[in-house]
Each structure stands twice: as structure tokens, then as C-alpha cells.
Amino acid sequence: MNNNKRTINIISNRNIESKKTKYKLIEELDKYGLMGTENYDKNAELNVCIGGDGSFLRAIHRNKFPPIPFIGINTGHLGFFQEISPTSISDFVKKYVSKEYTVEEILLLNTLVRTKKKNFNLTSINEIVVKGSKSKVVHLTMYIDDNHLQKFSGDGIIVSTPAGSTAYNFSSGGSIVYPSINCLQVTPVAPISSKAFRSLPTSIIVPGDLNISIKPEYRYKNSILIVNDGMEYWYDDIIDISFNMSNKKIYQLKFSKDYYWENLKNKFL
Ligand code: NAP
Ligand code: MN
User: Annotated active-site positions, please?
Assistant: First the structure.
């Protein structure tokens, strides 16, 4: 940016707790000669995201999946991604400066939506949900590596990353997947299993190098809603939608090796 100081981006939501936390962080960073800035700097060494999981997801999307590692400070509701609490900022900065952390990859989902006119690529941290844009049952044909698996009928399906497995996937009966396992999970939302329609009632976990694809039934190709990490997208004339592990990655600092299990227990039990 403007001087030789090491720069840290601070991406904060607008709530009062987050603002207070931001000022405290800037003050602590300054003690070690680090500059915290709210004007996103592409050459910064770290992105600190203050808020909850929603803010964390939006910070990554808005900044287009940058190579700068992320760490979160939780001022949100759940804050599953956010390892640091507002009360441990000075400890966090101290450990950061003395490099007491590891850098872990967050695996991402890549989705290709093919329509009659154009193709679209989406990248997700948590998941893609494919459902009906109206409150109707959707009918989708699902293939894994070009093998026909099932005709799905129900509210929709979730394709979740390991990091997203504790989010919508978990609420829909999917399994929790340890974040370093390279795989995708397909989880049905209210699958119909009747004499009229038959769909798998549980989720399937697929290795990251296989291709999952779904085709909306002809009369539903304009009534599909795609939700990427909570953001809605509509497309005209969808031919098919395919999913695989993205080549893109994002990086996250980890300060405690036991954090994953502590966090899981604290937030879900
Ligand atoms: P939101 O409606 O505020 O979030 C729903 C809840 O999911 C929040 O408590 C959020 O934490 C939590 N969350 C997000 N990612 C998580 C993860 N990887 N592991 C565990 N919990 C997680 O919307 P949002 O904050 O923008 O988050 C978008 C996400 O909401 C979507 O990606 C989807 O997974 C999830 N969602 C869940 C349901 C459901 O469970 N029935 C329905 C729709 C969407 P914070 O409170 O810290 O933000
Ligand atoms: Mn939220």
C-alpha cells in the first residue's frame, strides 16, 4: 500500500461488537508494527474477518477467493469458521507474530451450470443447493461419472464440501466430514420415497475426483433455483449442472490443533 509496514486486511460486519473488536485489533497489531486496514489491500499478508460464518463466507466471495490466508474473529451467532474470540485478541496477535500457527486448505466446490445459451461457473465454500423456485417438487436425474444413479424427486439436493458439512448439510441429515478429506457429499432435502417416486433417502459421499451431475426434467428447466453459500441464482433453460472439487483453494490459519473437536462439541452438543 503506502509504506513498508506489514499490512493486515480487516473485513468486518457492521455490528457494534464487531466495530469494537476491529479497533482493539488495530491497536494490538500496531504494538507489533503491523498495520490493520479496512481498505482491502491485495498485497496484505492476512485477512482477518470479524463477524459470524455468514460474514466469513461473504468476505471470501466478495474478494474472489484470494490467495491471502483467512482467520476469523467470532462476533456472530454460531461462528463455526471463526477460531478467535473477541476476548483473546492480544493472545492471537502475539501468536501470529511468533508464527505459532499452521496454514490449512479449505477445499472448495466447483459447479458448472450449462444452459442453452451460456455456461456459468460457481465456486462454493459450504454448498450448492438445487431446488425448485416455486414450492413444487423438483425432479432431477443424477449421474456419477456418467453412470445413471437415480431420478430424484423432493425439495432438492445439497452438494456440500467438507467445510460445509456442518451447515445446511448437517441440518438435513448429512454427515459431518473432517475438513481435510477430499470428497463431496450429496444430501437429499425431503426426498420422496413412494409408489410414485423413489429417491435415495440418505446422503452419498463421493471422492473429490468423480464428477456428479444432475439434469432437471425437461419441464423443470426454468423452475430451478440454485443457492450458492446462501446466495440465490436463477438461470434460463438449464441443460445440466455438474459438480466437482475446485482447483481453487483458500487458506485458513489454525492456532490450536484440537480446535476442530472442541468447536464441534461446543457448537453442536
Ligand atoms: P444464515 O441463515 O444466517 O446461516 C445459517 C446458520 O448456519 C448460521 O447460524 C451460520 O453461522 C451457520 N453456518 C454457516 N456456515 C456454517 C458451517 N460451515 N458450519 C456450521 N455452521 C455454519 O446464513 P449465512 O450466515 O449467510 O450462512 C449461509 C449458510 O447458511 C449456507 O451456506 C447454508 O449452509 C446455511 N443454511 C442452513 C440452513 C439450515 O440449516 N436449515 C438453511 C439455509 C441455509 P453464523 O450464525 O455464525 O452466521
Ligand atoms: Mn449468519
Answer: 53
Nearest ligand to residue 173 Cα: 1
Rounded to 5°, the CA angle 83-84-85 comes to 125
Q: Per-residue pLDDT for 7 more than 90?
A: yes
Domain boundaries, the chain: 6-100, 109-247
The residue whose CB lies within 8 Å of the most ligand 1 atoms, and thus the one to mutate among 17, 49, 78, is 78
For residue 53, which ligand has an atom nearest its CA?
1
CATH for 109-247, among 3.20.20.140, 2.60.200.30, 3.30.2350.10, 3.40.50.2300? 2.60.200.30
In CATH, what is the architecture of 6-100? 3-Layer(aba) Sandwich (3.40)
Handedness of CA 73, 79, 83, 84 (dihedral sign): positive
pLDDT score of 251 more than 60: yes
The per-type count for the chain, helices as H runs and strands as E runs, is 5, 15
Residue 181 in grid coordinates: 478429506
156 CB less than 6 Å from ligand 1?
no
Residue 218 CA to ligand 1 center (angstroms) comes to: 31
Q: How confident is the model at residue 221 (pLDDT cuts 50, 70, 90)?
A: confident
0.90 cut: is pTM over it? yes
